[in-house]
Design a protein that fits this description.
Largest sheet: 4 strands, mixed
Shape: globular
Oligomer: single chain
Structural class: mainly beta
Number of helices: 1
Low-confidence stretches: none
Strand content: 35-45%
Strand order of the largest sheet: 1-3-6-5
Number of strands: 8
Radius of gyration: 15 Å
Length: about 150
């Protein structure tokens, strides 16, 4: 597995990575509140290892997005040979959100993993987060525009 460089030097939290098994099942991540911006992931290694396959491309989309300011938002996403990692922010409180993680492999297999994420109701709704480094420095696009999440 190669080292995946994530925004701000983030180290993924293993407690929020779902491990796909060779037998397909819907996944679930630990809960979050609307103001949280937390890293989540899907580990496809058990699914890919039998054929010696690796991830070539991926997409992450929020199935339950409605266009609301408070929609669950994929702030960024990335992959290495076997994992897709993402930062999720916002989300309407007291809702079950669904995220679709699709991969295409180097051997042209296509696979979709549906994930559930409960947004708890003990915090007020929060809009799309702006991304900042632990130092407080705002992350920006190459053109200087502040990075925030976008619903894909």
């Amino acid at each position: 597995m190669t080292d995946l460089v994530l925004p701000g030097g983030l180290t993924p939290d293993p407690a929020r990575i779902w491990h796909v098994t060779p037998v397909h099942a819907q996944g679930a991540w630990p809960v979050k509140s609307s103001p949280d911006a937390l890293d989540y992931g899907v580990d496809f290694s058990a699914f890919l290892s039998g054929a010696g396959d690796t991830i070539r491309t991926h997409t992450v989309s929020v199935i339950t997005a409605t266009g609301s300011t408070y929609d669950l938002t994929s702030v960024w996403d990335a992959h290495d040979e076997s994992r897709v990692l993402m930062m999720l922010g916002s989300g309407v409180p007291a809702t079950m959100q669904r995220v679709r993680v699709q991969i295409t492999t180097t051997q042209n297999r296509r696979f979709e993993q549906a994930m559930r994420l409960w947004i708890v109701d003990y915090s007020a709704a929060s809009g799309k987060p702006l991304m900042a480094l632990p130092t407080g420095e705002q992350l920006t696009a190459p053109d200087g525009t502040p990075l925030s999440g976008t619903v894909t």
